[in-house]
Amino acid sequence: MRRRHLLAGLASVGVLGGAGVVASGNAPDALGGGDAAEPIEPVTIATVEAPGSRDGEVTLPAPDRPTFIDFFGTWCAPCSEQMPDLVAAHDRIGDEALFVSVTTEDVGDAVSEETVAEWWADHDGDWLVAADVSAELAARLNVGGYPSARAVDATGRVRWSTSGTHTTEEFVDGIERALDR
């Protein structure tokens, strides 16, 4: 009986340890946190008219261009908390990568476009913002929590994948992986 408890305990440690590695964004390829083996199939989604953004559509990840995608929700307190670090990262990266924030909220129905634009302005967002109302992009990029971020290189392969809040330096380091630095 003790042997069975010991084996169950050891298995639990392995599962919890693996979950911690995935949650930190430092998972090896076998756990889904490293570079994507295959390019991500792009999805075209609607953009939101807001500061630094425009009304229209965007294809993500961008074809033939490094892309940084931040997944957020207007209801998400940690998303609000990390906006100053995203603003600073955006300022540092400039036009080297397409920088876009995406909400999976039902913009235009459950949440108005004005609500997203006001949230965006209140948090000093000044880059492209889009709505993945079908969550197709989020599904392709395996987004399971908010905030989450993905840095995708020009070939469409994920080079950095993380969830949770991060510092400016962490964002810049992650984006630079997609820039092949």
TrEMBL record:
Question: Where in this chain does the record put each Thioredoxin domain?
Answer: 37-180
Q: Which SUPFAM superfamilies match?
A: Thioredoxin-like
Secreted is among the record's keywords: no
Its localization reads: Cell envelope
User: Which keywords label this protein?
Assistant: Cytochrome c-type biogenesis
Protein name in the entry:
Redoxin
Q: Which GO terms describe its biological process?
A: cytochrome complex assembly
Q: Name one GO molecular function term.
A: oxidoreductase activity
Where is this protein chiefly located? other
One Pfam short name: Redoxin
Q: Return the InterPro entries for the record.
A: Redoxin, Thioredoxin-like_sf, Thioredoxin_CS, Thioredoxin_domain, Thioredoxin_ResA/DsbE_sf
Domain of life, per UniProt, equals Archaea
